[in-house]
Amino acid sequence: MDTNVAESVAEVLKAVAHPVRLQIVELLEHKEMCVGDIVDAIGGKQAITSQQLNMMKDKGVLRCRRDGTKVFYRVENKDVIKLLHCVYDHYKTRKG
Description:
By secondary structure, the protein is α+β, with helices and mostly antiparallel strands. Helix content is about 65%, strand content about 15%.
């Protein structure tokens, strides 16, 4: 693997390698949601959730759109979903 590719892949992996970000990606797997609904679903503070969302957006994992005063997020990189499913399946297999 080329160094530039390895660095880009590592950035995407880092973008989802956090419990809150994993929860967010799982929430957004099948539908887009506004920030307030994401905060309600995972708990926590809106400012921290917004930081997590923006970081994943900057890394190309998520995409957002504005509708009036609300910002809606959705998964942009569907390959991240595939990767996470592989990791989840591995975890389930190991837990028995």
